[in-house]
């Protein structure tokens, strides 16, 4: 029903219409669906894909990244790999004004392409990126410190799924109104009033995406594609330590845009020189009307308060919490939580930090377990996953940057360490900085310690008076500081309900009794929302109507029919 | 597909489901539809409705308004009728904290009612208000200064249509995701992973609606009902000079809520004592998470900058503009514009202020018309509509407040007055303050004069070098100051297209060649968007997805199936 749907659809739209239709169904049903296979197996991707992707990645190292953008020609190289690799990729550097001017000039023709034309191009970009998913995975691995399989999944397939999800929401939102409508109103005995109305989808302006170090693609793609498909040219400002994954993304996006006859400056990379504060300059630029940010609470709140000319979407820090009341599968609970704490050395924004456990212990299928036994069970599960360095590093990956190491030093002094963080030699990368998770015992009174985020492989086992007390602490801390995830273990329906009531009150997503292959720190695109926007950890969810609806406006014209 | 839809639907939902379904279709099609007849004729509303409504209105005068709300028991009476009536209605007065506390306490049960339960109650409130539409119309007339028929239509039927439209958008948004979803993911050769996911619609908190003097109901209802149906208790802060229409609204809303078993404090009236600045206190309250405001640019921008804890929706001032290039119906154009300038003495936020006309004149079906002849034609049309006082006042109504009179004095000194504003004796209300529209001639160089809003019966005929110059002025002034409406008259498709291109660039809705019964200052619910949110005159449109999507969040819980 869009204007132009009776005309031949854009060829790229036609090519990807089935995928978009399936995605539109998926966001309505929110059951399981994925468009991009998450297994890097040669059976899925072919025998040569992995080696080709690795080679493509390696070809970027110690060289000028191939990107033809406006700018003076100088280059920046700011990355340092958590795996100890020498990266030294040199990216073209431009001033904020140059980038914004180039993006602004590209806007009108992109706006005129309409929802269908833009969706076709964006879906072709995703297809192109998927064709280079091993290249992307290597780039994510060696900048973020994620182990390869996780980098392939979270940084590749799942990031593409989240991008598609954002495109689907935005397309649904742009096309919920017809492109043109007839309007006929009876008036007395005369001819009816007849008007033809045209509804134009109009972007907000230039969009800015500010990437993070740990999930350069996964956390950037939803905003990037939600803004782009709604007509906004996008400037991608990567984290200085994780530029390559987004540089590759921008490279292929520009390639597709140019092939489709659009100005490639619709997607621009904005790498920054050390200390340049390019994100701040861009975020305050009057032409920048949408900002997506993932990172610290401090900077996220600064953006919300200061980038007043823009709609600002932020994901910040929080206090992910698990309330442990009882379980009918003690071993499964410990395994499940142990995996959550170990994966990517706890460097996910969704990793549980505060484990609230009654000091008198809990009832389990193995009988009563004391507080110390519960903590020991979780610690043992972590220990088992990390005991063998070769297998362990495929879960933990490497430590993303020095601030995590500093926190690991600091946390050893705040309470009794139940599980010590160990330094592990990476069998394949001798320069990799690998640390196993630590668990520190606290009491409910140690509020000052556990009510701040300790990003990294750091969790607290907090002894409470009772489960009711645990829920009170969850309410107070998540209410005040926010969280992206919460979990509860209980065999008592009343406790599960009480936890759900608290989760609703403080606006955090809750996972109940996870003992198998689903983990509190993982969310599935098209089904799970990531973040709620209902607590201080994030002002938006990935992805829902509110995430896309403010990225464009409808401007109407009407004429007598 | 909401959780609970297999259960018996809420009886109020069942009662109004057909209306809601029809409204949901209307917002998808955006053709003509209305749920509430706009004709106050006895043939539509019955022989006694008008008299009963008038009597109900009069019963409020010089008395304590019947509203049982929290508070100390003191009362405020701040209204002064543009028609010279003694109103002296005394409203219960409460402190901001009392109102917020009462609203907050009402939230959990309302949240738990779910989208369907809340929609049923909100639709019943609309039905109840519709049953009292003559009472409302009288209250709107005698506080805003609108003539009766307009008060009935804009303040009654159309306001209810806009409320229903907002409810429909919000309901669609709340139910675009299922209440529960199954999720099943195949994993290797074992059993698939199976989860049951529950998606809770969670309101943002307490909502505040700040009403205006001219359209106390029409401009307040969309925000009021969008916030209420999404689960937010609403505090309604009326303009001190237009309390009664919103007091009546709150009265019947509370009646319906109580009958349906909910806390009536879900809707609260917050009349203020002179100089109290209650809107500011409420808008900055940490529990207030949504603010809707209609009024001055200055205060709207203050709210946007300072009510940082809330989503703020504002409609402010702008420079409504008409570009006159040529016409094949000179008489129709003059009649149409004359009506627009005359209706409610130009005191609509959508009334055209700046008429941009080439100084060399325009081509018409009556031959070439000089600049002065075009202006004279429009002035004559205004003159004809206002010549007879008895008929004139049924269009102009009365002047809403003294600041309009002050501007009328001031404008007589800024240029050559082509059409003088006249004082008219109202035949029925000797105390009524009635003024006819004025038109002042300016040149394109008088930017300082025409680039501010002169709210009231004030328009400028601005001589430009050419239509291209007119479009440049439109681009510059609307781009910088915003507008709610724009119009263009031309027989040249290229000019219409150029005007539409400018309208898209500056984000203003455009009406082309209106010469009949549709006017640039009127928008039809379910079809026309009011405001675009794409220029400085408003940061949101009535009503679209962006207007409702940020009023709630989805909080998810998941369990193994």
Automatic annotation (TrEMBL), chains A, B:
The keyword Thylakoid does not apply. Pfam families: Aldedh (PF00171). Transmembrane segments: none annotated. One of its GO terms (molecular function) is L-glutamate gamma-semialdehyde dehydrogenase activity. The keyword GTP-binding does not apply. It comes from the Bacteria. PANTHER family: DELTA-1-PYRROLINE-5-CARBOXYLATE DEHYDROGENASE 1, ISOFORM A-RELATED, DELTA-1-PYRROLINE-5-CARBOXYLATE DEHYDROGENASE 2, ISOFORM A-RELATED. This is Phenylacetic acid degradation protein paaN.
